[in-house]
C-alpha cells in the first residue's frame, strides 16, 4: 500500500528537530509493523534521552520568536498546513492504514477529522481575547491577558495517529507555544508525515519537534521532559496508569496537564427508545476503528422490555460486518493493533463465558481462511447475560465486543452506569423529554450522547471526569488549556 503513494517523500523515518530530519543520536532503529500482515513496513529512529534534550533545546530556542508573532500570522501558517493535509488525504490515509490497520474509508475520515482541528484552531488563534476589569480604585486600569504557557510536550496514542497529534499540536501552536512530540511506537509514520507537511507549510525551525521511540525507550525520552522546568505543559492521551505517572512526575515542576485517559462508557437503551436508531447509534459508536477508541461503549444496558428485540436487531448488523485488511475495499473492521490487544479481548470474552454470558455472534479470534494472512483479527461479537462481576464490565476491552446487560429501572441503570472510576463518555437512547434531562444530568461523564452515537467535533470540548482525566481538547476551551492568564494593573492614571 505504501508503494502507491503519490508523494513518496511523506514517508519519513527520522526525528524532526530544529527544522532538520535526524537519526537517533545512538543510531538505533525500530520496526513499524502492519497489523494486517505482521510484516515490517518501515524502520524508524528509536530515540533516547539525548534526542529528547535536543528537541527541548530547539523548542525553547524557538519559543520567544513564535510567541511574538501575531495570532493572525500563526493562523496563516495553520491554514496552509490544513490545506496541505486535505490535499494529501489519500496518501495520509494509506500511511494510517498501513501502520494502524483501520480500513481505508475510516482512515480517510480520520485525515479530515484531524484537519478540522487545524482549521478550527487557525481561526481561534485570532480570538485570544483578554479582559478589561472594572477598576476598584480611580486612576487604575486592570487587565487580564492570555499568554502561551511555553514549551508543550505532546504524547499521543496509536488508535488515531493523525487526529490525536493534530488535536494537540494545533491549539498549542495557535496559542503561541512550541512543541516537542512523541507518537506511539506502533504508528510513527503518520505523525512524521504530518510534521513533514507542517515543515512544507513554513513553520519556523524548532516550533514543532518530533521524537520517535520504541515502547522500551519511551520512558527515557519522556522523563527528560518531565524533569525539565522549561517544559511547561504535558498533553497526553492514553491509559490511566500512565496518566497518573505523568501527573506525579510533573508535580516536581508544577507543569500544566491535559490528560485524556481510559474510559468505560455505558450505552443505555430505555424501553421507550427508537430501537432502530439505538442500534445504529451503537454500531457507529462501538465499531469505529474496530472498537479501539476511548469513547467506545464498553457496557450496553438494555431495558428488559426491549432486550430481546434489540439484541436480535443488533446481532444481525454485527454478524454482517466484513472483517479484513485495509487493502480490501469491503473491510469494515480491520485488525487489532497487536497481539496484546487480541489477547486482552479474548481473555475478556472467555472470562465472561465462564461467568455465565452467552455468545450471540462472534466470540473468537479470526485466522485464515476467515481472513487473509496472519494479522491480529477478532470477530465482531455480541454477548448476552453480562454481569458486573465480569472483567469486561470493569476494564476497557478496546475491541469489537458488545456485552449486553439487562436492567429494569431508570434509577438502577444510572447507578450501574456510574459505578466505575472512569467518566469519559456515556450514551443513552430515550424519547421521554423529562427523562433525557434527568439522565443527562446524573451521568458522571465528560461527554454525553443523547440519541446520538457520533460525538466528536472540533467545536465541542472533549475530555473526561474522575479517572478519565482532566483538561479539554477542541472548542475554545482547548485553546485555553495552552494558555495562562496574566493580570496587569496600571496605576497613576489620574
TrEMBL record:
GO molecular function, one term: succinate-semialdehyde dehydrogenase (NAD+) activity
Protein name: Aldehyde dehydrogenase family protein
Location of the Aldehyde dehydrogenase domain: 21-488
UniProt-annotated catalytic positions: 260
Keyword line: Oxidoreductase
UniProt GO BP: gamma-aminobutyric acid catabolic process
Upper lineage: Bacteria, Pseudomonadati, Pseudomonadota, Betaproteobacteria, Burkholderiales
Family affiliation: Belongs to the aldehyde dehydrogenase family.
Gene source species: Ramlibacter pinisoli
Database matches in InterPro entries: Ald_DH/histidinol_DH, Ald_DH_C, Ald_DH_CS_CYS, Ald_DH_CS_GLU, Ald_DH_N, Aldehyde_DH_dom, Aldehyde_DH_Superfamily
Top-level division of the source organism's lineage: Bacteria
Amino acid at each position: 500500500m505504501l508503494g502507491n503513494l503519490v508523494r513518496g517523500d511523506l514517508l519519513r523515518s527520522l526525528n524532526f528537530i530544529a527544522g532538520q530530519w535526524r537519526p537517533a543520536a545512538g543510531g538505533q532503529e525500530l520496526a513499524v509493523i502492519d497489523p494486517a500482515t505482521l510484516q515490517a513496513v518501515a524502520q524508524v529512529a528509536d530515540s533516547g534521552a539525548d534526542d529528547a534534550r535536543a528537541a527541548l533545546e530547539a523548542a525553547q530556542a524557538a519559543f520567544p520568536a513564535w510567541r511574538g508573532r501575531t495570532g493572525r500570522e500563526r493562523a496563516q501558517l495553520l491554514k496552509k498546513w490544513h490545506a496541505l493535509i486535505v490535499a494529501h488525504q489519500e496518501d495520509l490515509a494509506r500511511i494510517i492504514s498501513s501502520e494502524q490497520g483501520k480500513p481505508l474509508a475510516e482512515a480517510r475520515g480520520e485525515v479530515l477529522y484531524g484537519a478540522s482541528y487545524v482549521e478550527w484552531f487557525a481561526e481561534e488563534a485570532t480570538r485570544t481575547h483578554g479582559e478589561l476589569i472594572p477598576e476598584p480604585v480611580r486612576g487604575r486600569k486592570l487587565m487580564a491577558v492570555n499568554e502561551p504557557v511555553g514549551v508543550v510536550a505532546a504524547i499521543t496514542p496509536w488508535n488515531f495517529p493523525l487526529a490525536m497529534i493534530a488535536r494537540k499540536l494545533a491549539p498549542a501552536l495557535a496559542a503561541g507555544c512550541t512543541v516537542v512530540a512523541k507518537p506511539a511506537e506502533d504508528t510513527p509514520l503518520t505523525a512524521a508525515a504530518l510534521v513533514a507537511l507542517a515543515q512544507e507549510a513554513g513553520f519556523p525551525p524548532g516550533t514543532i519537534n518530533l521524537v520517535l521511540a520504541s515502547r522500551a525507550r519511551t520512558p527515557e525520552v519522556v522523563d527528560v521532559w518531565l524533569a525539565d522546568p522549561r517544559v511547561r505543559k504535558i498533553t497526553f492521551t492514553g491509559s490511566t496508569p500512565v496518566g497518573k505517572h505523568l501527573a506525579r512526575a510533573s508535580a516536581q515542576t508544577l507543569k500544566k496537564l491535559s490528560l485524556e485517559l481510559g474510559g468505560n462508557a455505558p450505552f443505555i437503551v430505555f424501553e421507550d427508545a427508537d430501537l432502530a436508531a439505538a442500534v445504529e447509534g451503537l454500531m457507529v459508536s462501538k465499531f469505529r476503528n474496530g472498537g479501539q477508541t476511548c469513547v467506545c461503549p464498553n457496557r450496553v444496558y438494555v431495558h428488559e422490555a426491549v432486550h430481546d428485540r434489540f439484541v436480535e436487531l443488533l446481532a444481525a448488523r454485527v454478524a454482517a460486518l466484513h472483517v479484513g485488511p485495509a487493502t480490501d475495499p469491503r473491510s469494515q473492521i480491520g485488525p487489532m493493533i497487536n497481539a496484546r490487544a487480541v489477547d486482552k479481548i479474548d481473555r475478556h470474552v472467555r472470562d465472561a463465558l465462564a461467568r455465565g454470558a452467552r455468545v450471540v455472534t462472534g466470540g473468537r479470534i479470526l485466522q485464515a481462511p476467515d481472513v487473509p494472512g496472519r494479522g491480529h483479527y477478532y470477530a465482531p461479537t455480541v454477548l448476552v447475560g453480562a454481569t458486573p462481576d465480569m472483567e469486561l464490565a470493569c476494564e476497557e476491552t478496546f475491541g469489537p465486543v458488545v456485552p449486553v446487560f439487562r436492567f429494569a429501572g431508570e434509577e438502577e441503570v444510572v447507578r450501574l452506569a456510574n459505578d466505575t472510576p472512569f467518566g469519559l463518555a456515556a450514551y443513552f437512547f430515550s424519547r421521554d423529554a423529562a427523562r433525557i434531562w434527568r439522565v443527562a444530568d446524573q451521568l458522571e461523564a465528560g461527554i454525553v450522547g443523547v440519541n446520538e452515537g457520533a460525538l466528536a467535533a472540533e467545536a465541542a470540548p472533549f475530555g473526561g471526569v474522575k479517572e478519565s482525566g482532566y483538561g479539554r481538547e477542541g472548542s475554545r476551551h482547548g485553546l485555553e488549556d495552552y494558555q495562562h492568564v496574566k493580570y496587569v494593573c496600571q496605576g497613576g492614571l489620574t
